[in-house]
Amino acid sequence: MPKVYCSASACVHNSGNCCTLSNLDICGKGAKKSFDTECGSFYERRNETMVSNEGACNSTEINCEATKCVHNIDKSCNASQIDISGVGAYKCSQTECETYCKK
Known about the structure:
Blueprint lengths: L2 E4 L7 E2 L2 E2 L3 E5 L10 E2 L21 E4 L7 E2 L2 E2 L3 E5 L10 E2 L6
Parallel strand pairs: 1-9, 4-6
Antiparallel strand pairs: 2-3, 4-5, 7-8, 9-10
């Protein structure tokens, strides 16, 4: 299970550029490049505070639709770590999996 580093600081699950979720969804069915993917678990922080930073940058189960990625095995990511970009993101479509690598 990969560690998840994330630059989407406006996400409620982000703590110090690390994701606190234990189960993350990457969308991008048919993706051919990283910009065709997005973090389906992104949730904009408004007045909410992050629930916990206990799991930040710990290994996370990644459910991934990007089946054309070399790290995807049966819709699960097997990379040792992934990087989610999303500087200034306020919705899922403004994020992407930087670790995506076409088979």
